Structures are given as C-alpha cells and as structure tokens.
C-alpha cells in the first residue's frame, strides 16, 4: 500500500480506538450500571484500556495529535482526583 492510504487507515484506526476508549471510560458498555459490574469485567476493561494505550503509543507516528489526545484522555481518567484546598 502507498503512504497516504496507510496514513488514512491509521487515522481511521486511531479514531475507532478513541471512540471505544471513551465508551469504556464513560461506562456505556452493554447498558450495565457501575453497581452491577463484576470484578472480572473491570479487570477486562482495564486490560483493554491498557492495550489501547499501548497501541496509541506504538502508532503515534501515524497521527501524533490523535495519539496524544487518546493517551491524555486515558491518563486523565486514571489519575486520582486532586484534593481541593483545606
């Protein structure tokens, strides 16, 4: 395949990955509430998110801006909340 085709396919792949990450992070998976999510499902989600983070990092040369957005969104939602002033 030629360079532009590979770039377009890479960007499309990263867009799909970003959409899946956002759906998973916001808990829109299979219509379940957070209370009924089992420990196994949580572990599977965490593994999947970690895999997506690795894919975004490994293919950051295809679309650096989109890879940065994906990595930032994953990191932002994994950080513990900051405590406000006391």
Describe this structure in words.
The structure is a single chain. 67% of the residues lie in helices and 0% in strands. The protein is an all-alpha fold and 86 residues long. It has one domain. The longest helix has 23 residues. The protein is elongated, with a radius of gyration of 15 Å.
What keyword list fits this structure?
86 residues; mainly alpha
Strand-helix topology:
Blueprint: H1 3-25, H2 39-58, H3 64-78
Helix pairs in contact: 1-2, 1-3, 2-3
The helix fraction, in percent, is 55-70%
Strand count:
0
Q: Give the terminus-to-terminus CA distance.
A: 58 Å
Query: N-to-C SSE series?
Result: HHH
Rounded to the nearest angstrom, the radius of gyration is 15 Å
Structural class: mainly alpha
Concise overview:
The chain has 86 residues and is mainly α. Helix content is 67%, strand content 0%.
